[in-house]
Amino acid sequence: MLTIPIETKSKMPIYEQIYRYIRDDIISGSLPCGMKLPSGRGLASHLSVSRNTIDMAYGQLVAEGYIEPVPQKGYYVCKLDYLYARKENLYNGGSAEGEQTGYGREGAVESKIPYKVDFSLNGVDMDYFPYGTWRKLMRECLIDDNKDLFLSGDHQGDLELRQAVQSYLYQSRGVRCKPEQIIIGAGSDYMLLLLSRIFESKKHIAMENPTYKQAYTFFESLGYQISPVSVDEQGMRTELLEATGAELAYVTPAHHFPMGMVLSASRRQKLLAWAGGQEGRYIIEDDYDSEFRYAGKPIPALHSQDPFGKVIYIGTFSKAIAPGIRISYMVLPEKLLNRYHQVADFYFSTVSRIDQRLISRFLLQGDFERHLNRMRKIYKTKHDMLLQELRESRLPVEIAGSSAGLHFLLAVGGKTEDAAEQEKRMVEAAAKEGIHIYALSDFYIREELRQPAVLLGYARLKEAEIKEGVLALQKAWEGLFLDRM
Amino acid sequence: MLTIPIETKSKMPIYEQIYRYIRDDIISGSLPCGMKLPSGRGLASHLSVSRNTIDMAYGQLVAEGYIEPVPQKGYYVCKLDYLYARKENLYNGGSAEGEQTGYGREGAVESKIPYKVDFSLNGVDMDYFPYGTWRKLMRECLIDDNKDLFLSGDHQGDLELRQAVQSYLYQSRGVRCKPEQIIIGAGSDYMLLLLSRIFESKKHIAMENPTYKQAYTFFESLGYQISPVSVDEQGMRTELLEATGAELAYVTPAHHFPMGMVLSASRRQKLLAWAGGQEGRYIIEDDYDSEFRYAGKPIPALHSQDPFGKVIYIGTFSKAIAPGIRISYMVLPEKLLNRYHQVADFYFSTVSRIDQRLISRFLLQGDFERHLNRMRKIYKTKHDMLLQELRESRLPVEIAGSSAGLHFLLAVGGKTEDAAEQEKRMVEAAAKEGIHIYALSDFYIREELRQPAVLLGYARLKEAEIKEGVLALQKAWEGLFLDRM
Q1: Which CATH architecture has domain B14-80?
Q2: B414-426 pLDDT per residue, tens
């Protein structure tokens, strides 16, 4: 029999007191699975309450799945499979992303294999994150118990943030737009989802080959027809674009992902002319890591050179601040605003108001600029070091894509049909020495006659790891390139 | 001529010092729009730097849109239209949502018209938000400079949060599921977007008539065929479902939106049987405000009664915590998990890691339960008061939907073809007295022979406003219902 202390003076109804007592005992394990509960009549008499009260308590326990009635027998405690099934979970803290480690641009879950050095393309160096500033801004957002930040806001994103982004884009990327053209959203995937709503139907899209596989997967999953367009040292071979018949082009002009070259001035003109040449053609400019450029003049955004209003600009704070901050922005051409308002502006914003306020203050108070300048210096140090180590090594590689971003490309030997196979050997040999590098073939939509190449990211590595990594790579590849070393 | 102080010992290149000096002067207005800059040669000689240095500085200013070259003349300061165009903005702090005020379930921007009392259906009472707890949790999330919270996490949502949601749903809604079935996302709109990716093509969907217009707009914008299904006092008339030919049904079984009734037990069985009767049929259960129930037993989620694995459950923290917190959750049936992994699990999460951590702690530490209990009491007081005021008034209305949620429905007179027109008069008469109420016709997909009715939300009203509102409503409607008062 259960002796349940009942407070008759409590505001909580008696049936609920009984229900809670039993529920808590089941959760704590005091009433184990399969145990029979006392009969309703018996318990009612035991506790001196009405039978009806017990029935209500039991009824609620049944409704919530804690106990179940067995006909002719009574009530039994259920097996709480799901409540305590935590150990059986398929996903244990990030494994969903495990497969992709190193292959995205945003992910930053540590790889499972205990590599000594992982030249991951993911993530950012969090050792220099301005935690203090962040905490201070967070505190300021909450300090006034600012009610309005807990209410829902502008669907496109709060005006203050859109203005801050507008000003940032104008000053650092030459992008001229009005806040009405800016949409704030939770990550670039979400931006592409919105965009897919804005385009009236499935489209034919041209993508650089190789490209950012996350975007490729996105368009593929949507059933878009995808035409890969080769790249060379000037970037996308825009002369091939017309013949594909595509209506959209997805490009990374400032710093090609993953090859690293800048789209040349003449190719930019061709690309823009292609878009301007026909109604309905648009360019999606993914300006994913333009914040980090170490040499030469800043490369303006393609958007800033567009006389036709045909460039859709997408940027993110994932690289420049942190991947865990889910804030991206998209600048829509004026021509697409009507359509956006027709089909997609009714969506509530996907970014919390507090995060929006925090980021806009981070931008407006100059913290973002300070942070960027600091990180640029830090990454440049790593960049220079890796470059120097690679040059001083006897590795028979050509280094590309090294003026910007957070990774290099190491090309080896001449063009071959067999690039993917050779890359596989290079990656495997490195893995044997505990070094994680990434095959360029993973980013190809369609393989081509080309130089084999691997990718080395350095954002998250310490100086000692860079040295160790290059040394180990040298050792790993000795057998592979005996003739050339 | 510009006299720019140059620090030769600075690490900053001289061209950049010049560039920044001029840029800042342009931004501050010291160099106004249209002003001619000194010639490159002149300035170089003036500052005793090389001509090349000036060219680089000017080049960058041109690239970033601060100045422009005029052939044969020189460089001129550009008009900074966009940077300073803030006053021209179409959107001034929430007006994008202005049109929808009162008509959604999430929005909470104050209406523009200076109503004395707005019985808005939106928003929550933020006077009782646990700001202190929130600040404390936020501080705890940041206090360890917890690096991993700034890296990207599990695409479905962090396991800790999915487990917390699983446990909450199990205990409070009887929903049994595994964390693998739960997807965390930035709002219910995003959940529907994900869902639309999971369904292979455009679908035929049945919706309650009237219904939540945000969802209706969503499916309509996607090109879904939509079959409205009438409701009566038992909820959706499920006997009409089969004949529509729909494959999906979007329903609000625990508390119909906006009418407020509970879907009856027999209708639930019929609805589930319909879904179980054919491959490919699914029910989308939007359990939007089930947290607030004031009378009778808690209504279990339809999901908890589903033997076929055909219910997709969607819930949100917008009502139970705050609309500005962009976190919703969806429970996918096991049958749909494969498809989800095929087409949509590559999307990065749309909720920041910090928000995820914060909410999971809020749930796990019992703060959510405490908050809900407190709010339930507060809303019940408002609810009871509004109910009493309405009953004591001489208003000739039937009150419906009053056992749950955050709004009532007031029905007037008999069924008529003319309900929308009568509602319009009721709403306008109220508006003249400064009272904002909402016509039921706004929620109808297709009009029907029915009782005219208006909706009164009370979540954000103070007790005095409730009294004032009902009094004013009485006055407003006197002329309308002379015969019955």
Answers
A1: Orthogonal Bundle (1.10)
A2: 999 999 999 999 9
